[in-house]
Amino acid sequence: MATLKEILTRRPVAATIRLTVPSGGARPAPPVGPALGQYRLNLMAFCKDFNARTQKYKPDTPMSVTITAFKDSTFEFTLEVFGVGVNVSEANNRKSKNIFLSTFSSSSSTPSLAVPTHEQIAHLILDQKSAPQVLQTFEWASKLPNFIHSQSTYRALIYKLLTFRRFNTVQHVLDEMPNSIGLPPDESIFLTIIRGLGRARRIRDVIKVLDLVTRYGTNPSLKIFNSILDVLVKEDIDLARKFYRKKMMGSGVQGDDYTYGILMKGLCLTNRIGEGFKLLQAIKSRGLKPNVVIYNTLLHALCNNGKVGRARSLMNEIKEPNDVTFNVLICGYCKEDNFVQALVLLEKSFSLGFVPDIVTVTKVVEILCNVGRVTEAVEILERVESKGGVVDVVAHNTLIKGFCKLGKVKVGHGLLKEMERKGCLPNVDTYNALISGFCESGMLGSALDMFNDMKTDGINCNFVIFDTLIRGLFSRGRIEDGFKILELMEETRGGCGGSISPYNSVLYGLYRKNMFNEALEFLMKMENLFPRAVDRSMRILGFCEEGAIQEAKRVYDQMNSEGGVPSALVYDCLIHGFCQEGRGKDGSALKLLEDMVGRGCEPDTGSYRPLIDALCRKRSFEKAASLLLQMVENGITPDYLIWNSLSHCLSQQTIWLEGKNMFRVHNLVEDIVEI
């Protein structure tokens, strides 16, 4: 147990770095320079100490170095050369050095080297960063006293050579093995070659490995055939099937469950589901029983292609389905928004003792939250936990979003406390869900509190949170607070990341508060950030003011085609312009209102007023009344100008309150008058 002094003097570690550096060859260049430089360590001090401590070794002897980098930019490093330990400490602005520790033999003044194990040499080879270093290390190990290479060290050498695409060198290495270690390459080496060629996508060369195996006097095993087949199906399923028929079956190799599983995977990856069913029947016709992996592969392909019902029927053939079977089908039903069948299968999986993985459970929770059945989602997560499952932060976030969607933000906030109590720490998405929920519920004080709690917990705010908070504050008239958050976003994130959304929220807030001059002034300030968007917006506003509404619409269409996002100011001016031109009835202005809502830009009284007035002037009272109901349901109170337009339109009608909408308008009038 550490003493109090050791605990108090312990330095916080920034990182542990492992390198292979030749004795006497440390330089402030790769690999040493980049590795140490990123932690602001003293490169020259390390190189000087390392070279001094390793000068007694034969030059260019590979040394395994483990460097502990501390947060105060000091470091310690340990050297290992198979039994020799070295410990050096260095601290900035210190002249003292720890004593060099090593193991010496009684008859020699140089460190004694123990014979390294094959595992140690293989590990050293795998640590090298280039083909020349790999070959140099292998050659160095060959000259060590009493050391003889083995299949494992040759396998490591071949793996690294394939990684560096030294394919011709691999052949020379294979040829020297019988003379070097007295044995031909074993199966593990051929498997390494197959996988290495597969990673390099040298498909034709992969097939030639069969000839390579027979060249060294052995017959290819089923494992080698399967490994080749596994590489082929990822690149060319037709070539893989040809290989199976001609090479495998032609050699009398029938294959096993793994073989058929590989073929099924290849067929399903290319959406050849019909041929997958034929393969399934072929397996059965040979008296074999397809395993659950083969079935699951076909189930997954069916669900991905929207054939969940067929997948469910196929499931009945599986005598012993596993957890993956249920995961695949439940996710398939969730993808189709069929939460009833998803719940049926979830219940069945519980009854069989399976607990679906958290990804599947989260999808069920999400689909339930989307239809407002949040209480059932809570019960499912509780059952998963009671059966030993772990509910992660994503599942909790999904549930919190569900409560926020129902307007129960405080319940969602309670879930935050509950997940923290369980040891599941919230992330930026958790806070974003709650901040968004508080903003939509008009609880801006709570949203700002969550924002401050987030900073206190050390979680960095992303753009989405800033955007959500700015939109919430400005849409609710909290102009001063909104500008503070905007300023903080620009300071901490260096701007908006190219998104105009928060700035449009500012314009929208200013416009709703009738601060037209301030809105135009802010729009001009945006020109440095979004010159094209500001130019388009100013041109639209100018054309609208001149009455050239068609020119304004042309610029608007151009802005949309370029991916621009018009502000509420632009939408309101266009709607007003179309209505003034007499197009309220033909749908142009209504289409703009729909587009405005679709882009997340909330309309206000000024957006609806010209539309309702234009419709009333054309005696389209039912459409005008429908818009009135829409704005009231969205929490927007009609002003006296809107009521004047409706009253005048009604006075022109022979029957005042005809139809359902008429009664609803009459009731709305009474309610608003009472207020």
Short summary:
This is Large ribosomal subunit protein uL11m. InterPro entries: PPR_rpt (IPR002885), Ribosomal_uL11 (IPR000911), Ribosomal_uL11_N (IPR020784), Ribosomal_uL11_N_sf (IPR036796), TPR-like_helical_dom_sf (IPR011990). By secondary structure, this protein is mainly alpha-helical.
Describe the overall structure.
- The structure is a single chain.
- By secondary structure, the protein is mainly α.
- Among the domains are: 13-90, Ribosomal protein L11/L12, N-terminal domain (Ribosomal protein L11, N-terminal domain); 506-674, Tetratricopeptide repeat domain (Serine Threonine Protein Phosphatase 5, Tetratricopeptide repeat, Alpha Horseshoe), CATH 1.25.40.
- Helix content is 64%, strand content 5%.
- It has 36 helices and four strands.
- It has a four-stranded antiparallel beta sheet.
- A hairpin with a 4-residue loop joins strand 2 and strand 3.
- Helix 29 runs parallel beside helix 31.
- The N and C termini lie far apart (74 Å).
- Keywords: Repeat, Ribonucleoprotein, Ribosomal protein.
- InterPro entries: PPR_rpt (IPR002885), Ribosomal_uL11 (IPR000911), Ribosomal_uL11_N (IPR020784), Ribosomal_uL11_N_sf (IPR036796), TPR-like_helical_dom_sf (IPR011990).
- Residues 17-75 form the Large ribosomal subunit protein uL11 N-terminal domain.
